[in-house]
Automatic annotation (TrEMBL):
<keyword id="KW-0547">Nucleotide-binding</keyword>
<keyword id="KW-0723">Serine/threonine-protein kinase</keyword>
<dbReference type="Pfam" id="PF13581">
    <property type="entry name" value="HATPase_c_2"/>
</dbReference>
<dbReference type="GO" id="GO:0005524">
    <property type="term" value="F:ATP binding"/>
</dbReference>
<protein>
    <submittedName>
        <fullName>ATP-binding protein</fullName>
    </submittedName>
</protein>
<keyword id="KW-0067">ATP-binding</keyword>
<dbReference type="InterPro" id="IPR036890">
    <property type="entry name" value="HATPase_C_sf"/>
</dbReference>
<keyword id="KW-0808">Transferase</keyword>
<dbReference type="InterPro" id="IPR003594">
    <property type="entry name" value="HATPase_dom"/>
</dbReference>
<feature type="domain" description="Histidine kinase/HSP90-like ATPase">
    <location>
        <begin position="13"/>
        <end position="127"/>
    </location>
</feature>
<dbReference type="InterPro" id="IPR050267">
    <property type="entry name" value="Anti-sigma-factor_SerPK"/>
</dbReference>
<keyword id="KW-0418">Kinase</keyword>
Length: 137
């Protein structure tokens, strides 16, 4: 009989700066304690970065300003998807050294094992990042 997977953790936050901290805390509270030394800092940093980007670039009008997060384990990875209602397509850039913005996807590319940007089935965009972990802690 196949192993039954865990139900993914799912949250919705308003497109407001206070949601960045709330999202980071929700992800940290959900990650098994044994994985905190391996994934906690990287997953927290990328949660903050991706939620910030979703708020800045993906939220459009008052009735569409929800940022969604999904966190789930599968295939030796923890997967984080951050989605927003925007239609833009995030692109990896290499900003000049003196630039104060534009490094979010560079962080994702450096810290995640793999990542992608996908359109959502109805409306919006998701950035999905996978973080490998060692089974058993």
């Amino acid at each position: 009989m196949p192993e039954i997977p865990l139900v993914p953790a799912h949250w919705r936050f308003p497109a407001h700066p206070t949601s960045v901290r709330q999202a980071r805390q929700a992800v940290a509270a959900t990650l098994p304690r044994a994985l905190h030394p391996h994934l906690g800092d990287d997953l927290g940093l990328l949660t903050s970065e991706l939620v910030t980007n979703a708020i800045r670039h993906g939220a459009r009008s008052e009735d569409e300003n929800l940022i969604e997060l999904v966190l789930w384990p599968a295939d030796g990875h923890y997967w984080l998807a951050v989605s927003d209602p925007g239609t833009g397509n995030p692109v990896l850039t290499h900003p000049p050294a003196d630039s104060e913005h534009g490094r979010g996807l560079l962080l994702v590319d450096t810290l995640a094992t793999t990542w992608t940007v996908r359109p959502r089935p109805v409306r919006g965009t998701s950035v999905i990042a996978g973080f490998s972990f060692r089974r058993g802690g």
